[in-house]
Amino acid sequence: MGVTPRVAVLIVDDEALMRAGIRLMIDGVDGIEVVGEAPDGRAAIEAVQRLDPDVVLMDIRMPGMSGIDATRALVAAGTRARIVVLTAFDTDAFLLDALRAGALSFLLKDAAPDLVLGAVQDAAEGRSRVSPGALTRLMSLATREPEQHGAPTPPAGEALRMAGGSVARPPSVTEREWEVGRFVAQGLTNAEIAAALYLSGATVKTHLASLFAKLHVSNRVQLAILVLEREHRP
User: Fold this and answer.
1) How far is it, in rounded angstroms, from Cα 32 to Cα 212?
2) DSSP letters along 84-150, please?
3) Are 115 and 134 in contact (CB under 8 A)?
4) pLDDT value, residue 109
5) Distance CA 220, CA 83 (A)
6) Whole-angstrom Cα distance, residue 217 to residue 213?
7) What percent of the chain shows pLDDT beyond 90?
8) CA-CA distance, 110 to 47, in Å (whole number)?
9) Which of 10, 20, 18, 41 is nearest to 88 (CA)?
10) What would the mean pLDDT of 67-76 be, rounded to a whole number?
């Protein structure tokens, strides 16, 4: 019988009661082990350096250094920990800022326990828990700036189909890589992208790895944001 891999988790929240509740909910379940807690962003950075967790459950609004600033600092320092934002504040600004900073997933504190557990397990494997609905919100945010300047914006799906890769595509990215990136921005899985472009799953993964390296992003959500912003820039 196989052994369930251990997933070391750090909980970051300024409320001790919330930290205790999250610990009770996830510690010891499906190989998850809570290895530490931190009450703010600065303490989180120190704890990540000391404990080397696989996953960080990060609140956003905390005294001193916010969770977004801590996430940005950890990613810039090259942490291997995957960061899952767990917050009570579901605003577009927080969603976009957290994902741009390098968070892998964005969850609300009223999420079902199974969703939180799944997000931790997914994060340990490098998978995001950002739903297609959240990607739709990101698409709306990416197209908001042209609307403010009075330029008509076509429906997001139509815009992605119409936009020419030669206009939005960064010079270092090939046309096929950008095509893969545009499908990621529409919320397609690797298997769906492979079917749409008549590619193997391994080739899609190769194109994604190249996009991550060339565009300096660390996950599919950051890639989607970047693609959407370039496709819809005025």
Assistant:
1) 28
2) EEEES---HHHHHHHHHHT-SEEEETTS-HHHHHHHHHHHHTT-----HHHHHHHHHHHHHHHHHTT
3) no
4) 80
5) 14
6) 7
7) 38
8) 25
9) 18
10) 94
